[in-house]
Amino acid sequence: MCTVQRIPYLGPIYGGLREGVSIYIQGSIPEDITRFFLNLLCGESESSDIALHFNPRFDGWDKVVFNSCEGGSWGSEDKIRDMPFSKGEAFEMVIMATSQEYQIKVNGNDFYTFQHRLPLERVCAMQIDGDVCIQTINVIGVRLPTPEALVSMLWALGFALCSGANMFIQHHEF
């Protein structure tokens, strides 16, 4: 039973993707799986361009399909006939963004490298759907604005501190 992250999932990647950022996903595969997918999106809607489509398929010819979609047109599929997931088993997956590619690891093992077809800087959201249970999604290496930049952004948006007011900002860089 999946209890932590509701599927389907569609959410922002705060700060977007850039070189060195990793997405860590922990989940499990149900016994009755047919397929699931994870999309890295260039917008926060289901109709956005897809920079990375990761699609494990348990269809008798078990495989993982990689692709991208721009302007509603799918690219050519990369089909990997090596299934890193097992029915009824937990998994850990890491997607690391480099300047040229996405490096995908499953359960600590290098699985596949998918070359960028769309600019990395456009990626700002993630979508997960299908037969999968997700317990954890962590984006590691996101650079938050400095406290000074945050105050400037708030000021530009019309937020001002009253005389004698305090603002506390915690900033953790990974």
TrEMBL record:
Key word Electron transport present: no
Keyword Repeat listed = yes
User: Example GO molecular function term?
Assistant: carbohydrate binding
What the entry lists under PROSITE patterns is as follows: GALECTIN
Superkingdom, taxonomy of origin: Eukaryota
The Galectin domain sits at 9-143
Q: Recite the UniProt keywords alphabetically.
A: Lectin, Repeat
Pfam families in the record: Gal-bind_lectin (PF00337)
| SUPFAM superfamilies (alphabetical) | Concanavalin A-like lectins/glucanases
Question: What PANTHER family does its record include?
Answer: GALECTIN (PTHR11346), GALECTIN-4 (PTHR11346:SF32)
Name of the molecule in the record: Galectin
Source organism per entry reads Liparis tanakae (Tanaka's snailfish)
